[in-house]
Amino acid sequence: MNKDISIIGFRKSTEKTSTYFKKIASGGLLLLLMLSPMTLSGDTKIGYIDSNKILEEYRGKNELKQKLEKELAKWQEEAMAKKQKIESSIKEFDSQSLMLSEKVRLRKRQDIEKLQLEYEAFIQKIWGQEGLAKQKNVDIMKPFIDKVNLILKELGEKEDYTIVFDVASTGVVYTKEGLDLTEKVISELNIDFAPITSMKEDEKTLFWVFAFEELTREAREYKHGTQISGYIKAGFVKTDKFKAIKSNKLSDAMNEANIGKKEEDFTVADYAKIGKFAGVKLVVTGEVTRVGDKVNITCQVIDVETTKVIAKEIESSSGGEREDLVDMADRIASKLLPRITE
Length: 342
What we know:
single chain; 342 residues; alpha/beta; Protein Binding, DinI Protein, Chain A; 8 strands
């Protein structure tokens, strides 16, 4: 019996996550806007988009990818368990082979072969050409694709386009300047992520939100610390009273502060020290836990000058999807902001 069992299917399945994610344009974003009869005349107006660029510059791209990875991780874990069972059976067979009768050896070989066939069938079911992984990707990407198509439809009707092609999937080799609608689509898609900037920059309070400490395994698995800090930062910025410093400025400040310990061990004084080097007035820190679908957040605001916590809030959510986390971060920001802007 050969000890080396083929697990190529599982390895390839883990590599396909980004491949599935990148192939959303295969038929999905190609929108033919037949707003007038398809007779190409002198009045025909044709435009095009680059769906690859649209996805690349969409600010919600990472959240979509994380949602897909979360789903694939469940299947990958199941595949790994099946693979380990096969390897364990092979190891047991090899260690006992000399002591077994030919009849028992044959039965055990058949049992292992059955496990192998079940494993291969599972891999095909999930990561095959029309497998569940592909369908899950389609389901996750559908709202994004629908939104792009709606934007294109509105642009087509407003600017009188007869047809819009996707150059990422149609093999177009030449286009006339002025027909590209890609940037317009990207601008519309990202409008929800754009901060309000009507207030003069030098009048805004400089601040920084550190990645929240992830206290449970699931919080670390879903990278909630970085997610929550980003949502709270956005909540501060959109009030038009706060301005977050650039991340490279914070990195320089941390080097200058030279605290000499891990971030999870920082004290209020440590955060304030970094804040002084960074030139901010406020520093926001916190902790996040996740058990099942329940997420808890503790958030505090530190006044850099006084080295004191000037506001603190705790919030919970019964769901762990992006919308749940954004709502929770918004609730925290709405409670904190009146207390730190008085």
